[in-house]
Amino acid sequence: MTESYAVETAPHAGPLQIPEAVEDVAVHRPLLEDLALKTIYVTAPPSLPELSSIMRLNYKVVDDLFRRLRAEQLVEVTGVSGNTRQIAVTSRGRSRALELMALNQYIGAAPVSLQSYVQQVRQQTVRDLEVGPEDVSQAFDSLVLEQKTLNKVGTALNSGSAIFLYGPTGSGKTAIATTLPRVLGKDQVWIPYAVQADGQIITVFDPNLHVKVEDPITERSDPRWVLCRRPAVLAGGELSIEMLELQLNPITKFYTAPLQMKANNGVLIIDDFGRQRMRPEELLNRWVVPLDRRIDFLTLAGGRKIEIPFELFVVFATNLDPSVLGDPAFLRRIQTKIRVGSVSREHFHEIFDQVCNDWGISYEKSVVDELIDIIQKDYGEPLRACHPRDLVNQIRWAARYERREPSLDRESILTAVDAYFVPEADEESKSN
Length: 432
Prior knowledge:
By secondary structure, the chain is α/β, with parallel strands linked by helices. The protein folds into 3 domains: 28-109, Arc Repressor Mutant, subunit A; 119-339, P-loop containing nucleotide triphosphate hydrolases (Rossmann fold); 345-428, Orthogonal Bundle (Helicase, Ruva Protein, domain 3), CATH 1.10.8. It has helices at 29-42, 48-55, 59-71, 91-103, 114-123, 133-139, 147-159, 173-179, 259-262, 280-286, 288-293, 322-325, 328-333, 345-358, 365-378, 386-401, 410-420, 427-431, and strands spanning 2-3, 75-81, 84-89, 112-113, 163-166, 188-192, 194-197, 200-203, 225-229, 232-235, 247-248, 255-256, 267-270, 295-299, 305-309, 313-318, 336-339. The radius of gyration is 27 Å and the shape is elongated.
């Protein structure tokens, strides 16, 4: 069976209502009581305000849970400090807590219901974004790109659909992909600490991926939700099919959300697509339905499936030909394909000037003019966006080795070129 909820898409609202009673939490009372008992058992004998802080629940809700646990002789009051009661588990409560810990060791913020999560994600959908030329230009001001490329990026963001960036290595695809989330940088969304589904806990908020926003609005909102910037999640060659499924920790017995769930309402970048540990068709087949219908199906232990929203931009960046990575049916679901190729002589100068400025190196146009001729004529290479950065790095490393200040002169650039580019094989090496 599949746990599914249909909700209307609505504009993102302000504060999330704080639950004032156990019934308002929208999670089964037994789960909350079990979580409270485990928390009391694991932490040093806490006070009710401390328990409220750990569980991210209103004091009235926690007090209600405590009274029920106390009536069942699972917890007791051990003392009073000022007007605050100190609480601890009883021997009976300790036995029950150990049983619960064997089933699930989750301690922390009380989860939100799957229905609440689905509704909130739909309200924060990326499909309702309105991105204009000024937004894109401002976000990409650190990159030198053709206007038609920026226009395609802006169009894709307004579509809310997936994007395919392709072209030769070193052309700037990854830089574009990782800069793209900056267009959404001022936008804020609510992300839950954890979600409850079919009695199981799935942790969602990840401090390594989600950028928390400090805002007065959070003081008036349900503390089980974290106000964050729209997520930006990057996955490269390490991506495996398992990372797209619920991760059940065999020791703690609770789940971690997969990458696409952590990236909901934001951007998921698949860098170097086609070079992952799984075959490209595995990923494409896995996401045919999500990309088309905006829903994803995740499987819990035991085989039960839950339905979650797939409300995110997916950006595929690859130096492989898209036609060999996916069939027409899949490519149709990726509405925007952007080829990122070699750069013009003018743009090459702009990028080189920018890189030199970043490192405090004086820019010499005549030296770069000679460099361009060497790259194109002597090495038969197109001008790529990565060349300025890579060659300036070579100059900096050589200067550090020689214990001098780096400078952009003819000698240093020729040394950098010789170390960076691979010359065509000479006759002797061809014969070996």
